[in-house]
Task: structure prediction
Amino acid sequence: MQKLSDILQSSSPLNHAYLIIGDPKEIIVELNIFLEQRLGTGFTSISNPDFHLKEFSTWGVDESRELKAFQSRRPITWPVKVSVIVPEVFTFEAQNSLLKTLEEPSSDTHFFIIARRLGEYLPTVISRCQIIKIGASVFTSEISLLTKDWLSADIAKRFEINKIILKKHEDNPSYILNWLNCLLDVYWSNVSDWVDKNALSGAQSLFEAISYANQRGGSLRVILEHLAGVVPVVKMC
Result:
């Protein structure tokens, strides 16, 4: 399994924004070690005005504004500033508020957003970050294979796979949500050009489907049929 430090070392120079999926506690430890190595002896995450680590149960608009203020000022002790964001919940309003910061970053600021699940982030936020996944997949191999088959299939084949998914959901009420989250995860991993409006539209449809599936009263069959028609066919890497 590739280490976070190895992945980040291959980024030269460092990207302005990363979205790292995995266990936050493990990632923070690895990230601190990497930053001390990459930015030079003496760089520390402790009492460093150029290092911004925030852990919140809910990240809201006020926190996004605070982050904008951090980015706007010049570094004090180092050539660059580093912001590490670890939210349990990152509200959609806060994500939208952060978009301009991610779209027009200052050259001396690097963002690291640490999350457990990719499906909780807006496609517009994800498309502005380099995605790094650390640790074993949380999805079963059976679900992963089914998502790959669905994404690479035409609409007729997708409708057939939808029947399989709905049948599995009857036996396991959490199946469709797991499958949809896996679908979004695999989709992001296999579509290379996130500037493409068609690709972003497909991601937005998947994101909205996960939100609808979480609500009571929504027709799962209708959700799956809609996705079959609007998500672009993806060639698996």
Observations:
- The longest helix spans residues 155-171.
- The beta strands are 17-21, 51-59, 81-90, 109-115, 130-133.
- The chain has a mean pLDDT of 85.
